[in-house]
Amino acid sequence: xxxxxxxxxxxxxNLRIGxxxxxxxxLEKISVSTKISLGADHVVNEMCDAIQRLSSQYKxxxxxxxxxxxxxxxxxxETGTVATSANLPGWSEYPVRQEIERRLRARIILENDANVHxxxxxxxxxxxxxxxxxxxxxxxxIGGCIILDGKIFHGLTGMAGExxxxxxxxxxVPCGCGNRGCAERYASASAVMRMxxxxxxxxxxxxxxxxxxxxxxxxxxxxxxxxxxxxxxxRKIYHRFGRALGILMADxxxxxxxxxxxxGGGVASAWDAFAPTMFQEMRxxxxxxxxxxxxxxxxKSANPTHKPRLTIVTRAILGSDAGLYGGARLTAL
Amino acid sequence: xxxxxxxxxxxxxNLRIGxxxxxxxxLEKISVSTKISLGADHVVNEMCDAIQRLSSQYKxxxxxxxxxxxxxxxxxxETGTVATSANLPGWSEYPVRQEIERRLRARIILENDANVHxxxxxxxxxxxxxxxxxxxxxxxxIGGCIILDGKIFHGLTGMAGExxxxxxxxxxVPCGCGNRGCAERYASASAVMRMxxxxxxxxxxxxxxxxxxxxxxxxxxxxxxxxxxxxxxxRKIYHRFGRALGILMADxxxxxxxxxxxxGGGVASAWDAFAPTMFQEMRxxxxxxxxxxxxxxxxKSANPTHKPRLTIVTRAILGSDAGLYGGARLTAL
Lengths: 333, 333
Known about the structure:
Nucleotidyltransferase, domain 5; globular; 5-stranded mixed beta sheet; alpha/beta; homodimer
């Protein structure tokens, strides 16, 4: 059996762990529930136990090359600690990397989870053929990552790619970050729920009201299902979502002019409902996108042998496994 | 005498040319008026004559290392032609680099003028001590450039750093690019003039109306002078300017998280009138800036020996010479 690395995706309720070979085969993955509220010591214990359990069966014949761990927060890459995270209260004083290295006797790398997902998509997913890309992860908020020359671009303090707090509406909805009108107030799962609740309260969305009242698990996904069925209220929400995401994407394209933008995260599954509006906004708002839009350029191309430079905007393809692949990949870079 | 390079800044009415040594001494600079409307052939002729005139006196003792030319438009770096430029109609078919190389028998590099200015500031100006920075050139519009690891970051089609067309007001003032509410519709010389004309027309700015009627050269600079004297109308214009620029800067910081942002161009001289509002918006709208704001961090720093990571936003210092230094520097990279 071959050598392998471990990729770890630390989520709010689940800890997902995979063993991945250097050429990108996922040997096995496991998922264990964990209670982040019980603190760093508890979670690190669970994590080390699970990594040891998974790797013990591959260790006999292959070497553990290390583990890369995606953390839902800001990571201090030098010290291997969690700098700040709304999701991980009390972790900032805990020597996460050092403690895991001590227990597992392997090379451990911590990284922000959005960055790890992007690295997975770059290695084996939608962006495997490009070296310069950005990824937007649409979940409760918007996670972001920029990859340049195949490597994560961290910026001065590891915060590059903070796309969710780009201003879309200068006097818009207040955001927890202190700003108003941030992109993630309009194009995320929590934004879909906010818009649905506002429309239900104002009486303009009877179908949404009915669904919310009858379904205890009413969610952004429920709103998407109604949009697909043609409900005007649900469609309006995803139209607003697509408009905001299109403005954000146009801004990002105007600043970065990359080869590819990958959109992932749970809410990316509502692609059909928001993507047409998003692309329309991008064409109207980014001269760079308009000049490199595959739809536009392919139709216009006078010389079919000349390969035009295109800006590709596409969905992520690895789903939640991106975090496992990306985490494992960290140990090879 | 030492070897030298030539830096050329091709503007709308003037062609500025400097001879610069490899260690950054400006030996001499000249400025010749040129009529861009007479076409590429005419301008390239003028340019070659002037470069030869200037370099002939230094050629006796030093070697001409090459010339870097800043062009007000999109440059195709591979072919050495002007890809698109609103300012240079009819140039796109002309082999600019090839023609100048043939006449001067020296290495010629074409580059977008905003990029050349930024490279000058990086080499010898405000950003000489940092490797990762962006520059905004506030003129008729907003020029932009991103420098990473000391080199110009071009992006897929050479358009990275197109900050002027980032959306500030989604339903705002229409822009020539096809978008609405672009940053350069609110934070440029032409934006100042538009706002002044609107306020004069509405009757809410009597002092501006008086100045515009009496001064045939009424400009963004005149509005600045009135703002400094305390005129409410003029102050309001630069407040709006600072707000839009602050939103743009917050967006750029959230995306790029660089060490330094340099603001240059003619309108940067109105710094006192717009900068306070700009910084206020940046603190409110960028969590990254707030966490690395020199004012904020220095006051809060508990440990004076720990060097905090700061985001510096500052004025350009080389003025119009930045284009000469940057052009010369192109030949050394």
